[in-house]
Amino acid sequence: PIILTLENVSKTYAPGTLPAVNQVSLQLQEGDLLGLLGPSGCGKTTLLRLIAGFEEPDQGWVEIGGTVVAGQGEWLPPEKRGVGMVFQDYALFPHLTVADNIAFGLRQGKQMSRSVGRRVGEVLHLVGLEGLAQRYPYQLSGGQQQRVALARALAPRPALVLLDEPLSNLDVQVRLRLRQELRMILKAAHTAAVFVTHDQEEALSISDWVGVMQQGHLEQLGT
Ligand code: ADP
Ligand code: ADP
């Protein structure tokens, strides 16, 4: 099934300026990994923010998992879109352990239920961080922190994950290793993903599809 549809989506931030995103259309099937590539300022992050619900399109519509979430008179806020997100700066809660960071979006009350605890264990295993559940973010390396952020995004089993330059704050060695891992982790989680990068090698090694953006347009989309 189709997980994500963008139909002629445009976004201009200020009157008299060029559109940051200009009539972009694309579709993503279940489990597909799409890398968005292009020079700084071409609209990659804006496109991600339109999918996430941090921006509203001026034109066109966005459909996630068969539901129109923006456009056609509809609007679903980010927390109702069932989308996982991973940012460049990880944004982990510094006062919470790894386990509590991952459980954050899963738990209902104060106690961690057995099913939440089990899911936290599963995603820690998925990202290769078993044994670090009780650490705090400052006790982890950058690569480990990024894996926690990924585990937190995957914990609720989203059909779609959005990643904004997920590896760019890491040093070169870690970045190269995490590239391969990121693809395997996303595939093992059976989630579709859109990730933004300005690194062509990275886009090609992680994704099934690569989209090249230029001045707000999606110029090319292919394997
Ligand atoms: P072909 O590879 O022969 O063009 P496909 O059925 O693979 O035929 O794709 C047709 C077109 O649809 C492609 O050019 C591609 O741009 C687009 N497309 C197909 N699948 C996807 C996808 N998952 N995400 C984005 N675009 C897609
Ligand atoms: P990329 O992620 O490819 O670097 P962006 O989506 O961040 O590109 O930016 C696309 C264009 O929109 C740029 O010209 C940028 O200056 C502009 N832009 C981005 N965010 C804002 C904003 N919040 N307000 C006004 N203009 C913005």
What report would you give on this structure?
This protein has helices at 44-52, 98-103, 114-126, 142-154, 172-188, 200-206; strands at 2-11, 21-29, 33-37, 59-64, 67-71, 74-75, 83-86, 160-164, 192-196, 209-214, 217-222. By secondary structure, the protein is α/β, with parallel strands linked by helices. The chain has a six-stranded mixed β-sheet, sandwiched between helices. It has a five-stranded antiparallel β-sheet with strand order 2-1-4-5-6, covered by helices on one side. The longest helix has 17 residues, at 172-188. The radius of gyration is 17 Å and the shape is globular. One adenosine-5'-diphosphate binds next to strand 2 and strand 11. The site of one adenosine-5'-diphosphate has 9 residues, from strand 2 and strand 11.
